Amino acid sequence: MTLTESPATPRLAARDLSLGYDDRVVVDSLDLDVLDGRVTAIVGANACGKSTLLRGLARLLRPSAGEVLLDGTPILDRGSREVARILGLLPQTPVAPDGITVADLVSRGRHPHQGWFRQWSTRDETAVADALAATDTVELVDRPLHALSGGQRQRVWIAMALAQETDLLLLDEPTTYLDISHQVDLLRLLRALNRATGRTIVTVLHDLNLACRYSDHLIVMSAGRILAEGPPADVVTADVVEAAFGLPCVVVPDPVAGTPMVVPAGD
Amino acid sequence: MSAATVTATAAPRRRRASGLAAGLVLLAALVPVLAFLSITQGSRDIALRDVLDAFGHFTQSSSVDDTVTVRLRVPRTILGLLVGAALGLAGTLLQGLTRNALADPGIMGVNAGAAFAVVGSITLLGVSGLGFHVAAAFVGALAATALVYAVGSLGRDGATPVKMALAGAAITAGLTAVTTGLLLTDLAAQQQYRFWQVGSLAGRYAPIVTGVAPFLAAGVVGALLCGRWLNALALGDDAARGLGVSLGRTRVVLFLVVGLLCGAATAACGPIVFVGLVVPHVARFLCGPDYRWVLPYAMVLGALLLLGADVLGRVLGGTGELQVGVVLGILGAPFFVLLVRYARLAEL
């Protein structure tokens, strides 16, 4: 896969987008083209608006100004079910009812493809089976979700989002609460999914080094605006990190992958 | 890529579905048994042969036994089944909608609205008679539900579960205060009100049953169609929207169905607590978290519980009868305590 400039009309884009809660502006007149078929990571300091931006892109928030475009149409003008067949979402803290099994949870990803007159089909069965296989959770199907470890559970949630069979997948801090090895596992999984199916993935991440290593495109946010965006190697410099996080640092190449690695400076 | 995986996931799903279906059929088979008991048992001792005869040759001039059977026990049985099913479903919808394991029709202002309308119509409008009370209660219950929804959906996030529960509690408190105030100053109204207020299937003649039955039936059908939505809502508001659920519209529809079910049930029988609270828990305990199964289970269990309690009240009460609301409270509370203590109930 080669990294070229984005095509003329990206499937998901923000135009002059402002988002906020009550009178507080969190995302401020922001323009963004999500690169099709790539893994994009959104990073930034706490309260910089990265999760709010993701929620806006996923139509969970109504813009106070501007709009989010899905395939060129304002996303809020399209039917919620129709959007859900194109764009999937894994929220930061999804809840699961007590006693739900992995099979049941992953099956619920089929919701937008079903209706009162179109119940469970072989297409649904295949989508669920593929999602379980892709996330390596086939052995867990009959287990209750609450009996799983944090890493397994997060893979199951991703399986649910995959079963939705959307071309775009947005994830809000999917690695939170996971230890380092499970964080890496999960990001490898996301990248593998992208490489295997060409699915567009946008994820909010906390860890800058992991974001550099596992994303094709990095968006650094600061105070509700995009401070810098591009391939991690072009974007992550000591100046940008200091401007975004207020942390004096040295940027060195990651000894394994060669991607930028941020090392705090000034002890 | 995954023919083997498909079989691996599809086979347990089918096994599970047939198990749940068998359980539902088994429970449903108890309904005619209970209905038979309800028609043959009562404070008036009527021989089984006479009960059966009553259906064959019923006319206006028939004997007292025939009249009791056909004009009282049959409508009472039908009403008990319908109202029980309605309350079981309404409780399930409310608990799913609010993701609150303690939600029951009482907290949504339904009972308070119905009670206020009954008392208001007695004291302020001077109407009397069970038929008027039923009509007033239905209007009051629907109006209170609408008010709770309207107040609960004020503000930025719309009708969130917490705001709806708070609005329900506040409106219940307000309406109850006014109702009590009206009753305290009117002794005659108290006399009429206390018979409606206790929650009973007794004395609900055929016209009342035929009056509320269409609303209850419509609500039951509507509720059974809501399983898909409740399944998505159970994953949280954000995930539900991600799956394509339009939150505002879904909440309005669910609330409307709940209002229809509780309004008609409460209007016909007075406030019956407990069925709407406990039945969803038992249903979830039996069949797990998939609402497409929980709803039909709750429907059958609700019908069985309400009619069972009514029959029990007639048998235990001897010539006097215990009202179904009283039986449910006396037997239901300890049963629920045991259930909570020994069976791990599912959290929402």
CATH topology of chain B: ABC transporter involved in vitamin B12 uptake, BtuC
For this structure, the quaternary state is heterodimer
Helix % of chain A is: 25-40%
Class by alpha and beta content of chain A: alpha/beta
Distance between the termini of chain B: 36 Å
Query: Would you count the extended β strands of chain A for me?
Result: 12
Number of helices of chain B: 14
**What is the CATH-assigned architecture of chain B?**
Orthogonal Bundle
Strand fraction band of chain A? 25-35%
Radius of gyration of chain B: 21 Å
* Helicity of chain B, as a percent range: over 70%
Largest interface: A-B, 50 and 33 residues
Question: Total number of helical segments of chain A?
Answer: 9
The main sheet of chain A comes to: 6 strands, mixed
General form of chain B? globular
Instruction: Give a count of the beta strands of chain B, DSSP E runs of length 2 or more.
Output: 0
Task: Kindly report how far apart the N and C termini of chain A lie.
Answer: 41 Å
Q: CATH class of chain B, anyone?
A: Mainly Alpha
Q: Can you give the mean pLDDT of chain A?
A: 92
Rg for CA atoms of chain A: 19 Å
Question: What structural class is derived from the secondary structure elements of chain B?
Answer: mainly alpha
Report on this structure.
The complex is a heterodimer of chains A (267) and B (348). By secondary structure, chain A is α/β, with parallel strands linked by helices. Chain A has 9 helices and 12 strands. In chain A, strands 6-7-8-3-9-10 form a 6-stranded mixed beta sheet, sandwiched between helices. In chain A, α4 (122-134) packs antiparallel against α5 (150-163). The termini of chain A are far apart. Chain B starts with a helix and ends in a 6-residue tail after the last helix. Chain B has a single domain, classed as ABC transporter involved in vitamin B12 uptake, BtuC. The model of chain B has no long low-confidence stretch (mean pLDDT 84). With 348 residues, chain B is an all-alpha fold. Chain A binds chain B through residues 21-22, 55, 58-60, 79-85, 88-101, 103-105, 107-109, 111-112, 114, 116, 122, 125-126, 128-130, 132-133, 138, 141-142, 161, 164, and chain B through 1-2, 5-6, 8-10, 12-13, 99, 156, 225, 228, 231-232, 234-236, 238-239, 241-246, 284, 288-290, 346-348.
